[in-house]
Design brief:
Blueprint lengths: L1 H16 L4 E5 L3 E9 L4 E8 L5 E6 L5 E8 L1 E7 L4 E9 L5 E8 L1 H4 L9 H70 L3
Antiparallel strand pairs: 1-8, 2-7, 3-6, 3-8, 4-5, 4-7
Helix pairs in contact: 1-3
Length: 195
């Protein structure tokens, strides 16, 4: 039994490593909501992060669209919830900024969280479940870090290109100004007959 349980946990960990976080682009003054159907006692968790840690509003609503939890003006966060009523829950991101914000989020619904429910499990199995859940959170955070790294690499390379082009433009302008000054001074001395 323990060997089969361990192999199932390892298999789930390997399969989960192929999963990636969801990414959405929030346009200015918009709200995007996502839904999760849950039964009573189901566990749901979500972690999210915005590119550049730009602030957004995050809220989880119950079946009657009443807010259960909200995080206003935050660039990252995580939340765990156990449903009390069966139905369709929603979690929403709202961008109040006048610019686009990229949001990277990773929800773990009841299907993914079922292995955390400790039926008649031994303490070792419960610890393995907790460890597996913690590994999932670390993988989520690592995916966020990779995403952030890609954004920053693009930003840095773009800035370097702009600086290089600006330096070339300044060099050409300086060479042109020097050439014009030499021509002007020579023409001044030619008019006076000194040269």
């Amino acid at each position: 039994m323990n060997r089969s349980f361990t192999s199932i946990v390892v298999l789930l960990s390997v399969l989960a490593s192929f999963a990636a976080a969801y990414t959405t682009i929030m346009f200015p003054n918009t709200q995007e909501c996502y839904f999760e159907r849950m039964k009573t006692g189901d566990h749901f968790s979500i972690t999210f992060e915005t590119a550049g840690k730009l602030p957004i509003d995050f809220v989880i609503n119950d079946v009657n669209r009443n807010p259960i939890y909200s995080m206003p003006h935050t660039g990252e966060g995580s939340y765990n919830y156990v449903s009390t009523v069966e139905g369709r829950y929603s979690y929403c991101f709202k961008n109040n900024a006048p610019h686009e914000i990229v949001v990277n989020f990773n929800p773990h619904g009841p299907e993914e969280e079922t292995f955390l429910a400790g039926h008649d499990a031994s303490p070792a199995e419960n610890e393995v479940r907790k460890l597996s859940h913690n590994i999932e959170e670390i993988k989520d955070h690592f995916n966020f870090m990779l995403f952030r790294n890609e954004v920053h690499e693009h930003s840095v390379s773009d800035t370097q290109k702009k600086m290089f082009n600006w330096a070339i433009l300044q060099t050409l302008a300086l060479a042109g100004a020097c050439g014009w000054q030499i021509y002007y001074v020579r023409s001044l001395f030619k008019i006076r007959g000194v040269v």
